[in-house]
Amino acid sequence: MNLLISLRSELLKTRKASFYLTLIGAAVGPVMFLLNVLLDENEIDPSQKDPLNAVFKILSDMNGTALFPLFVILICTLLPQIEYRNNTWKQVFASPQTKVNVFLAKFMNVHLLMLLFLIATHVFMLLAVVGINFIKPALNLFEHPLNGITVLVNAANAYILSLAVCAIQFWMGLRFRNFIVPIGIGFALWLSGTIMAVQYKSDLVFYFPYSFNAFPVSSKLKLQLTQVAWTSLGYALLFVIVGFIDFRRRTVSK
Amino acid sequence: MNNSSIIKTKGLSYHYSKDVQTLYDIDLDVERGSIYGFLGPNGSGKTTTLSLLLGLLNNQKGDIEIFGVHLHANRINILKKIGSLIETPSLYGHLTAKENLEVYREVYGASKARIAEVLNIVGLEDTGKKTAKKFSLGMKQRLAIALALLPDPELLILDEPANGLDPAGIIELRELIKTLNKTHGMTILISSHLLAEVEKIVSHIGIIFKGKMLFQGTLPELHVFQQKGSRLLINTSDNDTAMQLLQEYDPERDGQGFSVSLHDQKHIVAIQRKLIQNNLDVYLLQPKGNDLEQLFIDLTTAQ
């Protein structure tokens, strides 16, 4: 109950800016797709067997490898920054909330936004597909039904594979007063992780959290998806615990 | 613990780094229903003490009891009954006044109607959709006080609440504090580096300097303390001779002349007579700055 009250408090603090940021982030993929189709006649091949599921696969690849991890790095870092930016940590700690509730409420807030991103991006994609179907009925986009299970599994993979990065960035977001540092570190690690996974020259990718999101698009690494999903969960748990221990020690000095 | 005490600390000490001690054995005693002025120059340890009372800093040495119970064993329950404003206002700039209060409303278990009440108390009921970042400093300070009042606290801790307020704002704040104390029965602990700022409203005073409590008591007790420390400034044609003549009054060099202790106004006449009888010309015979402000300055500079 107390945790829910703390969560409500966190949602009220961040609902405006983070809500719009999430929707904008979620719209990037579908908008890019829409523009491609409108500007490039050959973006979707009408002769393709199942164009509807093919376009959702493109979205899931684009989101899973780049857009979603980058969003996670941004949101996990920026959300805890709200207290630094407004100089409000002392009010948070002087209020009758336990540190564990404050920490978990902030972490849950991040996850709600991650889930909102995944839901919104698929809704936007669906709207984009409906729009294209009206503009270009010859494509016969709805000739085949959408494979909902595959869409769900792909989205779940993107979410689970991002958990480790989320926990690490969340910890850094709480720790650093200057948000540029954790975001810079996050982006640099994501870029190196993705390059490492694409090239796949070392088994290090199985232990480097910033590589995990590239696994579903790599034909060589795809087979180890379940293994890295568990590794991601393990890292997430580890860094949540480390992050909380660090957070619990925190005092508000002058 | 004294039953009337709402805050009692014993031997409270704190250091930010090992070689710099910030607080030394602070024994604070704030009585229920009082307005306690916690005074000291900047950097004397006021904010550190108040931060310890709110659990913002970990207690290193000493005991803190609030509402008769130990702070660390009952921190959450204690904080539910405390409203606080530590230094600068802690507000979310992108939210309106109402939204800022709504963030903490359920945390403190306050009703929705309480938001309108506290905004009314601080005169911010008509700010509408204006976000806090567009508020003047005075408005921000008032909103921070509204936030402190949200839980309808038994104890209000205000750290330098007049910082950044204009004279009219300071007068308003004083009236508000008096009303909250008298009408709502709140105990108020208010810190300041200016005695004049709080002298008119406080019932009790604690003076801290370089991390040590120099005085603690009621306002009348401070006046008695002040009388004991009164001095008379004297300047004559031969100050060395005059100081020898007035040995019994504990003379001390002071500027161009000297000063002697003054426990009774009748002594002024006796001193004047003695100097004239010894053929000394008296140029100055004046009680030294005999107000609380002077006492505060004396206390905090004599150390």
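qc> Chain B has two domains: 5-218, 231-287.
qc> done
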